[in-house]
Design goal:
alpha/beta; 8 strands; 8-stranded mixed β-sheet
């Protein structure tokens, strides 16, 4: 059974190959436990939201260690109307050694767009779909994958759909973020006081993302388990 885990998970230190996993927020990583046995020494890092935080965290981590592969993981907003909430979606380099295992674990190969802001409603998602031709949107993987490409490290985006293309989020989370992309709980409280009807929708979203995090953890556990590298 999957259980909550700390931000940094390490499997048996004997494997010589290292896999780095990046998540934007701890809620995305909360159910992931490194499988044992595994052909990899596994490290997880929580970058914080947005490109700037992801860039800084990824560079710090990759300056300290040169892994054999990198996963950038978390939630994603659906842009393609046929992609359902809870779907595991991915994009991987041609040289990524575990692509077949991701697909075998139920991953759907798609195209991602790395955005500067949260896509909060169906209108915004439709516009992104039309202008980028992407199937899902996220805010960190694009920059991490770019850094990996510069350093010739095989990488993959592996995410789970938290909200579908036709769904509106209960709040405009962009207006609730600080300048360094952290949730401002005072603004959140004020927004809910002003619109208490949104509380039930926010609770429903939290339940949805909890389920999504479990789905993502299960997939990662399978993909990183013992097997052909």
């Amino acid at each position: 059974m999957l259980q909550d885990s700390p931000d940094n998970s390490t499997a048996d230190p004997m494997p010589s190959s290292t896999a780095l996993l990046f998540f934007a927020v701890k809620e995305e990583a909360r159910f992931f436990n490194a499988p044992s046995p595994s052909p990899f020494r596994i490290e997880t890092h929580v970058t914080g939201m947005g490109r700037r935080n992801a860039d800084a965290c990824a560079r710090r981590a990759l300056d300290q260690i040169s892994p054999q592969l990198v996963f950038t993981c978390g939630f994603a907003g659906g842009l393609h109307p046929n992609i359902q909430p809870g779907a595991i979606v991915f994009d991987a380099d041609d040289t990524f050694p575990r692509t077949a295992m991701i697909a075998a674990a139920g991953g759907l190969a798609i195209r991602f767009h790395c955005a500067d802001r949260v896509a909060v409603n169906s209108t915004e998602k439709e516009l992104l779909r039309q202008t980028t031709f992407a199937d899902a949107v996220e805010m960190e993987s694009g920059i991490i994958r770019k850094i990996c490409k510069e350093r010739k490290i095989p990488s993959a985006t592996l995410r789970v759909i938290s909200d579908a293309s036709w769904e509106d989020l209960p709040l405009d989370f962009n207006s609730l973020l600080t300048s360094d992309y952290k949730l401002d709980f005072r603004k959140l409280t004020l927004a809910l006081v002003r619109s208490p009807s949104r509380i039930s929708r926010l609770i429903a979203l939290q339940r949805r993302t909890r389920f999504a995090a479990m789905r993502l953890a299960e997939c990662l556990h399978t993909v990183l388990s013992e097997g052909a590298v």
